[in-house]
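Submission checklist for the structure archive. All mandatory fields must be present; incomplete records are returned to the submitter.

[x] Identifier: DUF1559 domain-containing protein
[x] Organism: Pirellula staleyi
[x] Residue count: 361
[x] Sequence attached
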Amino acid sequence: MSYGLSPRRWRAAGFTLVELLVVIAIIGVLVALLLPAVQAAREAARRSECLNNLKQFGLSVHNFHDTNNRLPPAGANDEAPNFGRGPAGDRWGSSWFVYVLPFMEQGTMFDKFRFDGSGSGWGADAGHNVTQAQNAKIKNFICPSSPLSIWCRGPYNGVREIQAPHYVAIAGGAANLLPTATYNETRINTGGSTAGCCTGGHHSSSGAIIAGGTHSLAALTDGTSNVWMVSENSNFVFTVSNTKQDYRSSAQHGFIIGWRSKCTPPSCGNGNDQRTFNFTTVRYPINHFSRATDGLPDAPGNCGTHGVCDNASTNYPLNSAHPGGVCVLSADGSVRFVSQTTALDVIGRFVHRDDGLPVTQ
C-alpha cells in the first residue's frame, strides 16, 4: 500500500572530486611550507655534529699538549719520528692526525704504527702503516654535510681504503692576509722545487700547528681564543668551466702523511718538495673557488700558482657544504661557525698566533 511518500534519497558518504583536489592542494601547500623547516633542522643537526667533531679534535690536541708540553706538528719531517722511508730523500713524516690518534680512542691503531723509518711507509717501502690504517673509519674525521668521499683517491702502496678527513689543521696565513703597513709576516715560503708535482704554493709557520716544528700553547701570544687551529676542507672547489674537483690536501693519500721537507718555513728553499698534506696555509676567503666566476683554471698545472691542485693543496680554502660558512676550532678548545662573508684581513688575524693585532668578529 502506498501512502504517497517519496522514497528517501540517501547520499553516499565521501568526498567529491573537487573536495579531494582541494584537500590534496592543502596538503601540498603544508608540505611546501614545512619541508624547508625540516631541511633546516636536519642541517642544524649536521652542523652541530660537525662542531662536535672539532671539539673532539680540540680535546685530543690539548691532551697531546698536556702529555708532551707542546702541540703536535702539522706534519713531521724526515728528522722527526716519521711515517716512512722510500728512496733516498723520500721520507714523509706523519700528519698531526697520526699524533693525536691515542687521544681519540685510536690507541690500538697507533700502537701498531712504526716510526723508525724502516719499511713503514710510502714510496718504495712495504707500507706497514698503510696496512694498519686500511679500512679504518674514524667517525670524527667525517663531516656529515660533506659530499666528498671519506676515502683517498689512491691507490696508495696498492691500498685505496685510507680515510681522507674532511678537516684540516691551520699552519698560518699567507703574507697577503694582513696589511703590510700594520704587520709584516716573514715566516713564509713560496714555491718549492721546479718539478710540477712538487711546487707547493704559499707555506706559513705563523699559526698554531705548523710543519716541521712545534711549540707550546705559550707561543700563542694573541691568546688561545683568538687563534684558529683546525677547520674544514669538506666541499668541492670549482673550475672556471664549473667542473667540481676534490683537491683537498687529504684526498690523494689520506690522513697519514703530512710533510717531507727537513725544514720549517721560512727556512725551506726552492729545492725542497713542499707539498703538504692534512694542513693548510690560509690564502683565500672562506668558500673561495665555490663557483665558476671565481673558479680555478680547468688545468691548474702545478700547485705553485694557486696553491690548489690535485696532488697537495697547500692553500685549499677553508670550505664546507654548510650554508654560509665553515666550522672552526680555536686553540682554547672552543668551536664556532664562521660566516663566509668574513673579510680576509679579519681571517688573517685569527690564523696568525702572534701578530698582536686586535680581533673583531
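[x] Structure attached
Curator remark: Residues 38-351 form one domain. Residues 79-89, 119-126 have pLDDT under 50 and may be disordered.
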